[in-house]
């Protein structure tokens, strides 16, 4: 038994396999867990409420094992996890707003989602000449709403604080009582740019809850869609980062390449974003007969375009001057918050859910997880470039090995619980699903990677000039919608 699971077993009573073991803790066990969280190299994967119960999911960075714990909170209070894991603070604020369960002695008791209850107090920054610049929540571009409060001294950012929650959709509450198929439509809309990834996390959690097998062809088609989604988003981000550095040539060509990928998705699966194509039990669309050949040509064409654009990028000193050493994210913060995706990998955290804990078909495919230690805007660009080349490799393997057969199996009906951890283009997505006796959703909780990346943007911007904030922000490209649910 691993160190994490041994600790959970000593602190509580084992009650479920989801597929990660879950233990029920009492108050003493919870305090014991918090004490160990302050010492052990365990990453917070998720923290959420279910009725009067609190759930926490953890990863042991030493051996890659995962475990869950449940704390009943009949008094609607619990000792704050945020005291020892700062990544939990915003999760605890959301739990309070959504479920009325308070985190005792939390470092931050301000509301998170409710924007209608009086003035909001931003954290202070003191010093001679320090002044504030408020930005948003309405922005000049067609983007989601979020407020950014800058404390600056001259042009240098002393402190940045984000206020989010403006796009709260009530997805968790809306999912209750729905069939898995109906709730899957909500999962697909948690964050539109990650619709495949969130749909996959939900579907895998439902399938775990029901012990539901998935046809091999559907498993491969899911991965095909996920890698296409990754490439499209990375291309868009690469171009947008260059655009924020006033280099529009790469932006223009990267946008055109992304458009070709989206058109290929439309041709292959009937939707540019492949929304509602990954469903519990399999997929809702199959490749047409000429689909594999078309996608292989797309891979070759996009690979050549990307290589050409990156050669331009790395040959422009004026562009590199804007990205190198800008927006550095401290490695210790990345590990402390458990940030994944290109944000984590650019700062040395080599965690990818496709490899650990892993899931099919990736456990039978050959690919590498790129890594950097520079942790600046340039490193986040480089990780995206390398990830796209790895996605090209994966697409070739998937298309070469694509099995024949059915694309969806009929869902069983009945109660159950399931969890899933999958890799989106931003990083790992966690999903928890509980089904009632009629097989309807009693609880659905998705945790987007942005929960643990937004706070790091605040830290990365400190010490940079105000004009570099758009560059830093785009290099993170956190989701507002996925963060606000």
Account of the protein in words:
The protein has three domains: 3-104, NADH:ubiquinone oxidoreductase Nqo5 subunit (Beta Polymerase, domain 2, 2-Layer Sandwich); 130-163, no CATH class; 171-484, Orthogonal Bundle (Cytochrome-c3 Hydrogenase, chain B), CATH 1.10.645. Helix content is 42%, strand content 18%. It is built from 17 helices and 15 strands. It has a five-stranded mixed beta sheet with strand order 1-2-5-4-3. Strand 14 (428-435) and strand 15 form a beta hairpin.
Throw out a few tags for this protein.
Beta Polymerase, domain 2; three-stranded antiparallel β-sheet; 485 residues; 3 domains; alpha+beta
From the spread of the alpha carbons, the general shape counts as: globular
CATH H level, superfamily name of the largest domain: Cytochrome-c3 Hydrogenase, chain B
Distance between the termini: 35 Å
The helix fraction, in percent, is 40-55%
Question: Given the helix and strand composition, which structural class is it?
Answer: alpha+beta
Tell me the fraction of residues in β-strands, as a range. 15-25%
Low-confidence stretches: none
Strand segment tally: 15
Number of helices: 17
Q: Radius of gyration from the CA trace?
A: 22 Å
Query: Describe the biggest sheet?
Result: 5 strands, mixed
Task: Calculate the mean pLDDT score and round it.
Answer: 95
Strand order of the largest sheet: 1-2-5-4-3
Task: Tell me the number of structural domains.
Answer: 3
Q: What is the name of the CATH class of the largest domain?
A: Mainly Alpha
**Fold-level CATH name of the largest domain:** Cytochrome-c3 Hydrogenase, chain B
What CATH architecture label of the largest domain applies? Orthogonal Bundle
